[in-house]
Amino acid sequence: MAITAETDQGYKTAMGVAWEFDYDVDVQALENLYEKAKALQWNVTEDIDWDREVDPSRPILEGEGFGLSQMPLFQRLSKTQQDDLRAHTAAYRLSQFMHGEQGALMTAATLSHSVPDYEAKLYSATQTMDEARHVEVFQKYLDKLAIVYPMSPFLKDLIDATLKSDHWVKIAIGMNIVVEGIAMGAFHNMKRVTGCDLLRDITELTMRDEARHVAFGYLYVGHALGEMHPDDREEAADFALAAIDMMAPTLGREDPRSSRGSGGDPRSGTGRGDPGFVKVLVHSGIDPLDFAAGVREAKEAGISLEPRRGTVRIMEDLVMPALSRVGAITDRTHEILKERGVEVNRDTSVLEKLEEVETGTAEL
Ligand SMILES: [Fe+2]
Ligand SMILES: [Fe+2]
After folding, report:
1. Ligand 2 centroid vs 209 CA: distance in angstroms?
2. According to DSSP H, which parts of 40-78 are helical?
3. Ligand nearest to the CA of 133
4. Where are the domains of the chain?
5. Residue 308 confidence class, pLDDT cut points 50, 70, 90
6. Residue 276 vs residues 6, 9, 262, 292: alpha-carbon distances, Å
7. Residue 310: partners with Cβ closer than 8 Å, 6 or more residues away
8. Torsion angle, CA of 159/144/54/257, rounded to 10 degrees?
9. pTM of the entire predicted model
10. Which CATH superfamily is domain 28-40+56-358 in?
11. Which whole number is the average pLDDT over 136-147?
């Protein structure tokens, strides 16, 4: 069932093209990432056993791995509604993975012609191939589910703003730090909670690539921001601020386990709902207003809808520390975030642990 449809015919972008005729390697860490990327390429058609069926009796988000199952409202739903909500929520999240990967494919290609360094161009070419593979792998998996949801407008707005930006640093902030930070957390959490072996294999292989993409953002953006004129750095920080604004609501909205409570706007506690998730509710036979009341009920009853052990808080523990670490949150924008009541966590321990896990040097 394709609940999707219209094709965005696109827009023109402002990005400049940078030639580099000095073929010496200046940033050795990027050359290392390029070598690693070449060695760790994998093939969607050959390296995954696609003969495995997705077992309908084992939901993708099974048991308590589905945070919403802890709501009293969930217990009152019919078995069919419960199963439908699990299946449609999973399809919704996986559809976002697929659409987000298409965005990543395009931003990575943009990096290859806009980054100023030779080795960064080579690295970006590998990321472009990685992202093509990721679109392919999630498309193939969603084919098995036969349910595809449209792209969340929050995610699309952020990727469009990233693609429309006029500097590669903003591209890397929007994609390699914010979107891919979110993706790393979402893939990690999906891997922890899914009952589907095929999906676990897919998320594991994909995360290994994403760890390199996040590492690129860390290495190269940090370096570039350090060299920038302070005015340009502040402009990049404003872009990071806008990216936070665009993504923060959606994370709280779809899943009330977030610290933003009932999924409202992080500053006002109300705000607009994610129309994508509303469609999930409708397709599961649940009235969105009843659902909103159910979220309030759970909150008032003090029922903990926190992520279960082993899952990570995406904005708080991954994206904010990653932005802080490269200097994309300046003292000025930190103050703005504080005034808005947005927590800026500078503790990079969870982020670093996840990066180590993906490079195979630690267990989470
Ligand atoms: Fe990707
Ligand atoms: Fe990526």
Report:
1. 7
2. 44-47, 72-76
3. 1
4. 28-40+56-358
5. low
6. 14, 21, 16, 15
7. 192, 364
8. 30
9. 0.89
10. Ribonucleotide Reductase, subunit A (1.10.620.20)
11. 95
Q: Confidence class of residue 2 from pLDDT cuts 50, 70 and 90?
A: low
Interatomic CA distance for residues 95 and 249, integer angstroms: 18
- Contact (Cβ atoms closer than 8 angstroms) between residue 96 and residue 103: no
What pLDDT score does 342 carry? 83
Angle at which helices 79-114 and 118-145 cross, to 10° = 160
- Rounded to the nearest angstrom, the distance between the alpha carbon of 69 and the centre of ligand 2 is 30
Distance between Cα 247 and ligand 2 center (Å): 17
Residue 162 CB burial class (10 angstroms; 0-12, 13-18, ≥19): buried
Classify residue 242 as left (phi > 0), alpha (psi -120 to 50) or beta.
alpha
CB 20 within 8 A of CB 118: yes
pLDDT of 270: 31
Between the CA of 207 and the centroid of ligand 1 the distance, in Å, is: 8
- Check if the beta carbon of residue 183 is closer than 8 Å to that of residue 211: no
pLDDT higher than 70, residue 268: no
CA of 210 to the centre of ligand 1 (A): 6
Select the more confidently predicted residue: 38 or 189: 38
Strand partners, 61: 194
Give 235 Cα–ligand 1 centroid separation in angstroms. Answer: 26
pLDDT category at 245 given cuts 50, 70, 90 is confident
Tell me what the pLDDT averaged over the chain comes to. Answer: 86
Q: How far apart, in whole angstroms, are the C-alpha atoms of residue 130 and residue 214?
A: 13
Ligand in nearest proximity to the CA of 97: 1
Report CA(131)–ligand 1 centroid distance (Å). 5
Distance CA(182)–CA(24), nearest Å, equals 34
Q: Which ligand is nearest to the CA of 127?
A: 2
CA distances from 32 to 222, 243, 252, 254, 325 (A): 17, 29, 37, 38, 21
Tell me how far the alpha carbon of residue 285 lies from the centroid of ligand 2, in angstroms: 34
Q: How many helices, marked H, and strands, marked E, lie in the chain? A: 16, 0
**Residue 272 pLDDT:** 44
pLDDT at 257 over 70: no
Q: What is the mean pLDDT of residues 80-90?
A: 92
